[in-house]
């Protein structure tokens, strides 16, 4: 396993591996989202309390779940980068951060839109909402730190430290509805509390967001590799090949 990981640490190898997976993961993401959204928005029955307004959960819930999942993945990559000094790990963190920021922004906007008819207001300084907003600032901080230094190693180290410090916010987001009295509803047990006609399209949407996150991360990672390795012969070979093609 370690031999395989060290092979991926080679920029050229990682670039080509990402390229093989991107089309398939993109297709899976589109397929899952189409199934989840067509089923959820078009065929799932109205909720007995919220009517049709609950359907925004097919956009909101997957974004909220993966806003935390992406940050947790960044923390793992940052730990590997700091402990084993793998520069590709720092690049992976940088590739994930903008995707996570967009997912967090989607979760906040759609959560506010959902909260307006449910709570009568677009925003409250609720524990769940506030900690999710802090997560967005953490993502933006990581992006800013990574781009604040010309030395890529120093930039990766600074961003990695911030990621690891900020990971304490993840359990706060997840358990905030249990630790404090909040307006936000408790965490939904998708196995028992949601009717299957609503639960299954939500699961498809969750997987669709996951595949899109991986696809976008790999695409951005390839771009970062090209920028960093632009003076290497193998990059010049790729450019010449594209020109001939």
How would you describe this structure to a colleague?
With 245 residues, the protein is an all-alpha fold. It has a single domain (21-243), classed as Four Helix Bundle (Hemerythrin (Met), subunit A) (Up-down Bundle), CATH 1.20.120. The protein has nine helices and no strands. The protein has helices at residues 2-8, 11-43, 57-84, 87-119, 127-146, 152-166, 169-179, 196-228, 233-244. α3 (57-84) crosses α6 and α4 (87-119) crosses α6 (152-166). The radius of gyration is 20 Å and the shape is globular. The two termini are 36 Å apart. The relative contact order is 0.17. The model has no long low-confidence stretch (mean pLDDT 88). Required for the export of heme to the periplasm for the biogenesis of c-type cytochromes. GO terms for molecular function: heme binding; heme transmembrane transporter activity. InterPro entries: Cyt_c_assembly (IPR002541), Cyt_c_biogenesis_CcmC (IPR003557), Cyt_c_biogenesis_CcsA/CcmC (IPR045062). Its main location: membrane. Keywords: Cell inner membrane, Cell membrane, Cytochrome c-type biogenesis, Membrane, Transmembrane, Transmembrane helix, Transport.
Number of separate structural domains: 1
- Structural class call reads mainly alpha
pLDDT averaged residue by residue: 88
CATH topology: the name is Four Helix Bundle (Hemerythrin (Met), subunit A)
- Largest sheet entry: none
Q: Provide the CATH architecture.
A: Up-down Bundle
Summed up, the helix count is 9
Low-confidence stretches: none
Oligomer designation: single chain
